[in-house]
Every structure is written in C-alpha cells, then in structure tokens.
Amino acid sequence: MERTFIMIKPDGVQRGLVGDVIRRFEVKGFTLVGLKLLAVSRELAEQHYDVHRDKPFFGGLVEFITSSPVVAMVWQGDGVVASARKLIGATNPLSAEPGTIRGDFGVTIGRNLIHGSDAVETAQREIALWFQEGELAAWEPAIHGWLYE
Ligand code: IDP
Ligand code: MG
Predict the structure, then answer these.
(1) Residue of the nearest CA to atom 6 in ligand 1?
(2) For 15-27, what is each residue's pLDDT tens digit?
(3) Given ligand 1 and candidates 55, 57, 114, 125, which is best to mutate, with the most ligand atoms within 8 Å of its CB?
C-alpha cells in the first residue's frame, strides 16, 4: 500500500503540536508504520532538501531543521501522499486553508510546521533516507474493514 514521509519540523515539536498532528492523520484513517524523534544532522537536512540547494532560503532552512529535534514518520494508506499534502495545506501558512495543519497553526513560510512528500517517488526516496527497513512495521489495523470497502 502507498506510503508517505511526514516530518514535524522543530517549530511543531517546540510548540507542542506533535499530538495534534498525529491525531489528524489517525482520525483521517491512515496507518502509522514508522515514528521517531531525532536531532537532524546537517548532512541529512541537506540531502532531504537537495532539490532546493540553489534556492536563497536553503541555508536558513538547513539551519532551522537542524536547530532542534524533529519527529519523522511514515504513514500508509490509499492515496496517502496526495491526501497528506491536503491535510498539511499550502506551503505559506497564510495561504493555507483553515482546517489544514499549516492553515490552523502557522503564520510564516519559514515556520510552516510540517513536511510531507510531494509525490509517490519522492516519498520512496525520503523514506529510504530517513528510515532503516527494520524501523518500519508492516501491520494492518483491526478496523481495516471499517475504513476500506
Ligand atoms: P513544501 O514543504 O510545501 O513542499 P517547498 O516549496 O518544497 O514546500 O519548500 C520546502 C520548504 O522550504 C518549505 O516547507 C519551507 O519550510 C521552506 N521554504 C520554501 N520557500 C521558502 C521561502 O521563500 N522562504 C523561507 N523558507 C521557504
Ligand atoms: Mg516540497
């Protein structure tokens, strides 16, 4: 089944929003298959955001992501990659719709609380970057039949 990589950024952890964020993915019906809190190395942050290496905000972004612990997660479910991006909302929290994580909790693009993979292939790359295979649990919730027809 489809999987995506979700990271609660340092601002989300510092502001005590870890539980709220996890709750939104849980009640939507997605399955948590990997979870850890970690201090991010500069190397990992740079690899994760490699696509933005030439952007003016790259240096500040790496500083931010390495400044305080993050919560890294893998969530699973039908269409989870695109659906997670909808739950997260637009990159700029001031443009993000109310009801989305960034729309409800954020005010500025450099403190937008959470990362979600932007495509299935990106998700596969990011999951492999952040998690060892043994850190992921393949399990099916007992309520599966009440979530999927
Ligand atoms: P996304 O997180 O919604 O996929 P991207 O365009 O991939 O957005 O940018 C990655 C991250 O880089 C954003 O989530 C944000 O933290 C940061 N970022 C993007 N644009 C800016 C900017 O103009 N100023 C500061 N930070 C930015
Ligand atoms: Mg992105």
Answers:
(1) 91
(2) 999 999 999 999 9
(3) 57
Q: What is the CA radius of gyration of the chain?
A: 15
3-class DSSP state of 71:
strand
Kindly list the protein residues whose Cβ atom lies closer than 6 A to any atom of ligand 1. 52, 57, 61, 91, 109-110, 112, 115, 118
User: What are phi and psi for residue 115, nearest 5 degrees?
Assistant: -115, 145
pTM above 0.70, yes or no: yes
- Written as six digits, the tokens of 51 are 């696509």
In sequence order, the β-bridge partners of residue 3 are 76
User: Residue with the nearest Cα to atom 14 of ligand 1?
Assistant: 91
Q: Rounded to an integer, what distance in angstroms lies between the CA atom of residue 96 and that of residue 107?
A: 9
pLDDT tens digit string along 136-149?
Answer: 999 999 999 999 99
